[in-house]
Design a protein that fits this description.
Elements (H helix, E strand, L loop, with lengths): L6 E4 L7 H9 L4 E4 L14 H14 L5 E3 L11 H20 L4 E4 L2 E2 L5 H13 L2 H4 L5 E5 L7 E2 L3 H11 L5 E6 H6 L7 H14 L5 E6 L1 E2 L10 E2 L8 H9 L8 E3 L5 H17 L1
Parallel strand pairs: 1-2, 1-12, 2-3, 3-4, 4-6, 6-8, 8-9, 9-12
Antiparallel strand pairs: 5-7, 10-11
Helix pairs in contact: 1-2, 4-6, 9-10
Length: about 280
């Protein structure tokens, strides 16, 4: 049963996109998250036919499933600045193209930042940006995943209501879902430290968004406390959330089957141990 669990981490494409798969296999992962291009640049290098072919060959060899891309941190699909918005939309469209060329299951993205504009104006811009990709998004297998944010600065998407607002505007027109980041929702005010806390949070998620939209997790502990709205990841069990949260995630009947991606600071050695730990939790039931 445990072999079917999809658990991985954000691995490196250094030297070629296929290396993210090989790195995942090294740490005992059954899925991975990755960048498809340099996340600190607006322009991403197009994938060559040779790179795509090597990716497909390596994917078959490693047998990883539900691979997820994380878009560039520069992208702000809700920017009030017309120049930044145009660059963001172009970069996001190119990211979706790369995801579809690699047959990735998910494209995860931070919704956006309002800057000095009202949050609702930003949310409307994000929905508008996504709908510009309607035709392309319907053609591939990639589902776009809105990531829950910590609410740091002017970032939107830290309340389920804001995620739900965007989804309501785009659902049935593009493949859309949600990736819950455990650090982010904790510091934005959702107490997930216990099963009771998770049950309450999931009930709220279902009421506001719908559990059918929950398709992935980023698993991270938090340096900062509940409701602090400060995004600082910590290794599992080493932060303010604690290990019980992750034990629940691996045994809860709703959460257990959902793909999970570690973004904890520490790299391959830590992720290898954390993947083992999560599998141990899953076997306890």
């Amino acid at each position: 049963m445990s072999a079917e669990l999809l658990i991985g981490a954000h691995t490196s494409i250094g030297g070629g996109v296929e290396n993210a798969l090989l790195e995942g296999a090294q740490i005992g992962a059954t899925t991975i998250q990755m960048f498809t291009a340099n996340q600190k640049r607006w322009e991403g290098k197009p994938l060559t036919p040779e790179a795509i072919e090597l990716w497909q060959k390596t994917l078959k060899e490693t047998q990883l499933k539900k691979v997820m891309s994380h878009d560039s941190y520069l992208i702000n699909l809700g920017s009030p600045d017309p120049a930044i918005l145009a660059k963001s939309r172009k970069a996001f469209q190119e990211e979706l193209t790369r995801c579809q060329q690699l047959d990735l299951a998910f494209l995860n993205f931070h919704p956006g930042a309002a800057k000095d504009c009202p949050a609702e104006h930003c949310l409307d811009k994000i929905a508008e940006s996504l709908l510009q990709l309607e035709e392309q998004a319907q053609q591939g297998e990639t589902t776009l995943l809105l990531e829950t944010t910590a609410g740091q600065g002017s970032c939107v998407g830290w309340k389920f209501e804001e995620i739900g607002y965007i989804i309501d505007k785009v659902k049935n027109r593009i493949p859309i879902g949600v990736c819950i980041d455990t650090c982010h929702i904790f510091v934005s005010g959702y107490d997930i430290r216990t099963k009771e806390g998770w049950d309450k949070t999931l009930q709220e998620f279902d009421r506001v968004i719908g559990l059918n939209y929950l398709q992935a997790f980023h698993l991270n502990d938090s340096v900062k406390g509940l409701g602090s709205r400060v995004d600082r990841h910590q290794p599992l069990g080493k932060g303010e959330i604690g290990l019980e949260c992750f034990r629940v995630v691996m045994t809860h009947p709703i959460l257990r089957p959902i793909p999970k991606y570690l973004e904890t600071p520490g790299g391959l050695d830590l992720w290898r141990e954390e993947i083992k730990l999560l599998r141990q939790f899953a076997s306890q039931k």
